[in-house]
Amino acid sequence: MGEIDLNIAKLELAASKLRAISHPLRIAVIDLLANGNKMSVTEIYQTLDIEQATASHHLNILKNKGILNSKREGKKIYYSLRNLTLTDIIECVNKCND
Description:
globular
């Protein structure tokens, strides 16, 4: 039987990112930012029809887990996905529901 090389640190990081995206609003944010889009906090919370504080909370979680980039431009902060591959994962999960 072959030896399996498990990198625990990598597995923990992957699990952490999966936990971060495992919320409907955070998946909605990722969907908004798919295709390389960048949006301000205002654009995100208005599009999702949620409170600004709620949007900021979820954006911070995604940013802190390395899923989103943020860039200040003047008084606004714009968010974008660090890696578009994440949208493939969500799409794959959605196909499991078919």
